[in-house]
Amino acid sequence: MSLLTTVNKFLLILSSFTSIGVLLSFAFLLIESEGKLQNSAEKLRKIGFLSTLMWAGTSLLQIILTLANILDSKISGALDATTLKSFVLQIDLGRFLLAQFIIAIVIVFAVTFVRTALQSIIALGLALLGLIAPVFQSHSASAGSHSLAIGSLIVHVIALALWVGGVLAVTFLSTHDKDAALARFSQLALWAAIAVVASGIANAWSRLNFSEAWNTEYASIVLAKSILTSVLIVIGYFNRKHLKNAQGSRTRFVIQLIAGEALVMISIVLLGSWLSNTQPPTRAEVAIDPATSIVGLSAPAAPTLARILTAYNPDALVIALLVTFVSLYIKGVAVLKKRGDAWPVGRTIAFALGIASIDLATSGGLGVYALFSFQYHMIAHMILGMVAPIGLVLGAPITLALRTLPQGRTPTERGVRGSLLALLHSRYSVILTNPVVALALFDGSLFVLYFTNLFGNLMQSHVGHLFMNVHFLLAGFLFFHVIIGIDPNPRRIPHLVRIVMLFAAMSIHAFFAIALLSTSTLIDNGYYQTIKTPWVTDLLADQHAAGSIAWAMGEVPIILALTATFIQWMRDDSREAKRIDRNESRKAAMGEPDELADYNNYLSKLQQRDEKEGRQ
Ligand code: HEM
Predict the structure, then answer these.
(1) Domain identity same for 368 and 326
(2) Cα 95 from chain centroid?
């Protein structure tokens, strides 16, 4: 059975990678015209249709094979309707495998019907989500430090899909399209390869960080993979070198190299599928306490400032995202500098502070202590929802992207920059930047999260925790983008409306904090009770402390934003006044009538007439 599961997983991974490679080509590699895909996409579309069908089929079979393995029964045993139904609806692993299957079906239609680069970008995002869904409940979830094991495997799988998928899709392209695609893909392939190796090593470390682990089947497969990966990187290096020297014309040698690269990759994917089906080594003597089984970490010592500033539990996925954003930001600033364009250093500092506070509240000490105490969870929430977004928004990342993203490769191509502009001006952005929507997501979600079972349920799993943190950050980013954002906004929101929004946010936040302060029962669905943190003796007091923190920490950033809005208002007004003055003096210089003076004259004439006729 396990051989069948490995072979099926191999076909699943290969077909999903190919499907993602096809969507990546549609979204970024193939030349489009005004955002629309050209005929060059049609050959790939057929391959994409077949690979997505295979992905859907193998992911359905993966559900049945996984259940049969869990039941230690034949496939027929897993085909029992009741068992299968409860597996896919009630068991986390079953649910994630079902999610992958459903998304694979949706991608069959997406690959068939997408017509624009923007639609392909959205379908690509969805396909990557489908691919990583089962990873949240793979045996990475049973390893120590879930955030390192699960996070690094997710980064591994995403980087692999872009790298391997991209190479497979490019091999199917016609000669003419290969040039444009390879030039753009080789950059991406380099980054993806770095991410694959770094995340592979991080994941291997999270399982093989004790000596006995090294004489296991698992360790030997990891070693074989590492050796083959080095071969792959050497081939990749020669490929890039020849591509650069060949200046776009491909020699027979380059085609062989690409084919060679694809072949080595496929064999490593086979090893990877085998690995994901092999039980990783476990430390025999380790007693698993409730905290370790739920969050993968035993409770740290009672919090002190030093401990909060030094504790670190790397969340590989968040770290990978932060490294990607920071690298892109630095690259953007470097491009501007090279062009001789200025970029205010204050923006870079604000962005860096935003990124640093995200790291502190996720992998850093606040992120660690948030897993063990409600009040520290609330501090981390306030940092992610209020402090970090202000830094990111004042860093103006969208403006930087618009000023540095590549334009079209042909006169008619809209390019990546064009796709971002289209997204910014799309109906979705207009709806999202509506002040009421931004405020509802920012403050309304507080009540939905904390005064329903949602909070307790989300705290129980790594994916739940990740979802909460991402929501806090995005809701905060949207809110502060609407209020004090420097980046382009599809709506021009008057300063008065922004100030009203801030006062509304302040009062709703205070109301939320008071509601939390006056709770008489625990609202975490028993999460902190199960964790049994030795230094949290009174859970209700800890919850009430979270209420005071929400109040204190919630108001400060809003007052900061209020001050910033007033300053922006005054600046805009004086800018407007200067513009009018400039306009008036230009008109005067051109001998054009001074409307303002004319209008005043008209008013005084009216007054004189009224006085004459005795009408006051
Ligand atoms: C230094 C290089 C690498 C190391 C140390 C490494 C290590 C790992 C580890 C530890 C896993 C987790 C397996 C599990 O679930 O327990 C994994 C999964 C995997 N790796 Fe790698 N890897 C490396 C490079 C690569 C490369 C280059 C490829 C393909 C071209 C690859 C393909 C895969 C696949 C397909 C999986 C299974 C993913 C899944 O479960 O969905 N790996 N790798």
Answers:
(1) yes
(2) 22
**Separation of CA 163 and ligand 1 centre (Å):** 13
Q: How confident is the model at residue 288 (pLDDT cuts 50, 70, 90)?
A: low
Does the pLDDT value for residue 602 go beyond 60? yes
Does 453 lie in the same domain as 348? yes
Identify whether the C-beta of residue 164 lies closer than 8 Å to the C-beta of residue 17.
yes
Q: Which residue's CA is minimally distant from atom 40 of ligand 1?
A: 276
Q: Is 6 in the pocket of ligand 1 (CB under 6 A)?
A: no
User: What is the structure's pLDDT at 257?
Assistant: 63
Mutational pocket test of ligand 1: of 156, 160, 208, the residue with most ligand atoms within 8 Å of the beta carbon? 156
Do residues 493 and 510 share a domain?
yes
* Shared-domain flag, residues 88 and 106: yes
Condensed to tens digits (0 to 9), the pLDDT of residues 227-238 reads: 999 988 888 777
For residue 130, what pLDDT is reported? 96
Mutate to test the pocket of ligand 1, among 55, 96, 276 (most ligand atoms within 8 A of CB): 276
Contact present, 313 and 297 (Cβ < 8 Å):
yes
399 lines ligand 1 (CB under 6 A): no
| Spatial separation of the C-alpha atoms in residues 515 and 503, rounded to whole Å | 18
Whether ligand 1 lies within 6 angstroms of the CB of 201 is answered as yes
Query: Is the distance from CB of 166 to CB of 189 less than 8 angstroms?
Result: yes
- Please give the tally of structural domains in the chain: 4
Pick the last residue of a domain from 113, 137, 161.
Answer: 137
Note the pLDDT tens digit of each residue in 167-181. 889 888 887 788 888
In a domain, 296, yes or no: no
Owner of token pair 């682990």: 213
- Residue-wise pLDDT for 84-114, tens only, equals 999 999 888 999 999 999 999 999 999 999 9
DSSP 320: H
Tell me if 475 sits within 8 A of 469, measured CB to CB: no
- Ligand 1 in contact with 100 (CB < 6 A)? no
Residues 355 and 457 in one domain: yes
Residue 272 C-alpha to ligand 1 middle, in angstroms? 5
Rounded to 5, what percent of the chain is helix, strand, coil? 80, 0, 20
What confidence tens digit (pLDDT) does each residue in 317-371 have?
999 999 999 999 999 999 999 999 999 999 999 999 999 999 999 999 999 999 9
Q: How far is the CA of 153 from the centre of ligand 1 (A)?
A: 8
pTM of the model: 0.89
Domain that holds residue 598: 582-615
- Rounded to whole angstroms, the Cα distance separating 295 from 286 reads 15
Per-residue pLDDT at 85: 93
Residue 54's pLDDT is what?
Answer: 97
CA of 63 to the centre of ligand 1 (A): 21
